[in-house]
Amino acid sequence: MRLFHLIDLPSDLIFIRLEDQIRGKFLETLKEVFGIYRKIGDLVNYTDTGIVDSFRVKNRFIKLSTIIKLTNLLSKKGYCEFDINKIEKKVIAYRGIGTSLIIKNPKFPLKEDERIIRIFFHLLGDGYGGKYGVAKPFYRNYAKELLDEFEEDLKVFGEVPHIKRETIVEIPSVIGYILGHIYKVNFESHKSFIPPVIFKL
Q1: Do 89 and 10 belong together in one domain?
Q2: What gap in Å lies between CA 69 and CA 161, rounded to an integer?
Q3: Cα–Cα–Cα angle for 161, 166, 167, rounded to 5 degrees
Q4: Which residues partner with 169 through β-bridges?
Q5: How far is it, in rounded angstroms, from Cα 178 to Cα 10?
Q6: Please, what's the largest Cα pairwise distance for the chain?
Q7: Per-residue pLDDT reduced to its tens digit, 134-193
Q8: Count of the separate structural domains present in the chain
């Protein structure tokens, strides 16, 4: 069973929310190491105000690529408690870029068990994995038991908000981003394919 850590996900398409305590400690340590907030902001293309707000404003989401850069910088300075694989345990919610719905209480790393495999094939076959700026992911089926199973399988990603109708389940865009990235597929119907790695599982 493969495990997918934060570092394995599409970091430019995902935003995460950290526990309050670690956010405060994060900013405090950055200030201690780099001195002024402007210098910290320059490292990740933020303004000094932007970097402070990212960690001080409650319920603020931070771009995953930004967190990865900052954790790498702190780890290289000897602050091992900020290793990205430790920080991922402090993630309390995540969402995709734009207006993607928020998934709460995730359990990172994600486990590639039968639930993720089923979700992937459902989106590939009878649904759509979504594409940023185009459409959101959904799964369509006329069999109620398959829709119910799909709905239950979503828990592998955390507490997933979704819209369930008679023959369709609509899910947050971030799930499509993750599956498209780890399996290296394009969910457009004429471009989709079963990735070779699936046959090795």
Answers
A1: yes
A2: 29
A3: 90
A4: 139, 164
A5: 6
A6: 59
A7: 678 899 999 999 999 999 999 999 999 999 999 999 999 999 999 999 988 877 655 555
A8: 2
Whether 52 and 127 map to the same domain: the answer is: no
Strands (E), 67-152: 91-96, 103-104, 110-111, 127-128, 138-140
Q: For residues 132 and 73, state if they share a domain.
A: no
> Mapping DSSP to helix (H, G, I), strand (E, B) and coil, where does residue 55 land?
helix
- Report helix, strand and coil shares of the chain as percent, to nearest 5: 50, 15, 35
* β-sheet bridge partners, residue 18: 91
What stretches in the chain show pLDDT beneath 70? Answer: 132-134, 188-201
**HSE-up of residue 44 (Cα within 13 Å, Cβ side):** 25
Which residue range forms the structural domain that includes residue 123?
A: 112-200
> What CATH number is given to the structural domain containing 181?
3.10.28.10
